[in-house]
Amino acid sequence: MNYGRQSFRPPQPPHVVAKTLKYNEAQEHLLRRLGSALVLQWDELPDALQDLIIDQAAAVEDRDEAAHDSTVIEAFIRNAKVIALSKPPAVPEAK
Fold it and tell me: Within 13 Å of residue 90, how many CA atoms lie on the same side as its CB?
């Protein structure tokens, strides 16, 4: 055994993996928030990373049967409507 020593593995470039996420229904809102955050930051990501994420999204399984074609996923990202969050009204201080 190799106690106290970490094996060195050089960084690997990102690639599509044959895996999917397991989460319960109560956590689905977190996945939606993460997906929304990713789409909002999409144009800031390098093109190669955008391509990788689209290919990974096409490869993962989903709870619902739906189209998994990468062109459909890319079209969704490109056509997603972005709206600004409105600032909540100020609450007057209680005296």
Answer: 3
* Total-model pTM: 0.72
Residue type, position 56, single letter: Q
Number of H helices and number of E strands within the chain?
3, 0
Instruction: Say which residue the tokens 């106290």 belong to.
Output: 4
* Residue 27, Cβ density class (10 Å: 0-12 exposed, 13-18 middle, ≥19 buried): exposed
Q: Residue 76: which of 68, 85, 64 has the closest Cα?
A: 68
How many CB atoms are located within 10 Å of the residue 77 CB?
16
Q: How far is CA 94 from CA 35, 38, 91, in A?
A: 39, 39, 9
* 63-73 confidence digits (pLDDT tens): 788 767 899 99
